[in-house]
Amino acid sequence: MIKMALSFFTQTKSPIHDRIRSDDASRLRLKYDTYYHIFEKQEGTRVWKDGKEFIMLSSNDYLGLTHHPKVKEAGKQAIEKWGASTTGARLANGGRIFHRELEEELANFVGKEACHVFSAGYLACASAVTGFADRKDILFADKNLHSSLWSGIKLSGARCERFSHNHPDHLRELLQYEDTKIPKIFVLEGVYSMEGHIARLPEFIELAKEYNAFVVLDDAHGFGVLGHEGRGVCDHFGLTDEVDVMCSSFSKSLAGAGGFVASSKEAIDYMRSHSKQTIFSAALSPSACASARAALQVLQDEHQHKERLFKNLERYRSILLNLELDIWESETPAIPIVLGEKEKVYYFWKALLEKGIYTIISIAPGVPPGKDLIRTAISAAHTDEDLDRVEEAMHYAKSKI
């Protein structure tokens, strides 16, 4: 009798278990082993997997500050002084003076009155939407936005209209059909991470003025790269005051973990009252705060990192263009190699691995149909020897497709 009862419960598992077992996306990912790799060692731009050395060509460490001595030392000292964590949300058990200091320095750097730091860039970007959007608003979003922004859009409950990627004219068409009295929010990226495109910000700002729209800009891939001393896309175009909310991540140019939202003081206070991601997420750790603060100072004091980045970028772009590879008109260190077919992407990626170059695959629906690509990123930390090997590997990979 007991055996029969146990058998009955074993056979009546939730349909969710069936969905998990029959999932094609997981099956194919595991079969082709394209993601979630583990490296047992890292030195500069070199990583080791299963004892084999690779040049990392898909990291977002644009300025190469991950191993900067000042950045590492700041993190160590913060742990010694403050411990590993504040173990809670700032609403619950308070922030610390190091949170305020970093926020004040970031706000001053990007030209905003105030700032709030988060334990993840994803949380920061989601909060930049949920902290301000209301169900009665209309959001206008670029079709190629990062997942974090789409999460914020969905959680806001507001209606969303999508416009063609980086296409102000299409946005204007959509705006013409809407009630002028309904509050409007534009959600943009400063640099689109998969494509490397810089937002046509001046044209979007003109539309925002015409339609009285609130502008949210994710500058995770422009911060540290564009503008004076790396102040980002807003500074690059001289439009800092016209963008209402800027968000970014620490895991790119600042070579850390976490993120921030910067805006007016009253807007940051409003977000702290209304964004659940802000209210309930754990505070940024002492070491992450200290390392980000040190990296921000390096950004301003040591301009050679940005100079080296653009020198490397110029050479890398020329390597790809000389091979007549499609880089989707990328203008920034985030450079795709568009091959257009899943099979071509897979074999190109495998060929690069053979030559000791680590990149990442991105295929539809992660990118538009026909834009299946290898996502690469150049860093100030790449050496001339690295780029020599990358050039050789690119020739070899192209010969395989």
Describe the structure.
The chain is α/β, with parallel strands linked by helices and 401 residues long. The chain has two domains: 24-56 and 303-399, Aspartate Aminotransferase, domain 1; 69-301, 3-Layer(aba) Sandwich (Aspartate Aminotransferase, domain 2), CATH 3.40.640. The protein has 17 helices and 14 strands. It has helices at 2-11, 15-21, 24-32, 69-82, 90-93, 97-110, 121-130, 147-156, 168-176, 201-210, 233-237, 265-274, 276-280, 286-301, 304-322, 342-354, 384-399, and strands at 41-43, 46-49, 52-56, 114-118, 138-142, 159-163, 184-189, 214-218, 245-249, 259-263, 334-338, 357-358, 360-362, 373-377. The protein has a seven-stranded mixed β-sheet with strand order 4-10-9-8-7-5-6, with helices on both faces. A four-stranded mixed β-sheet has the order 1-2-3-12. The radius of gyration is 23 Å and the shape is globular. The relative contact order is 0.15. The model has no long low-confidence stretch (mean pLDDT 95).
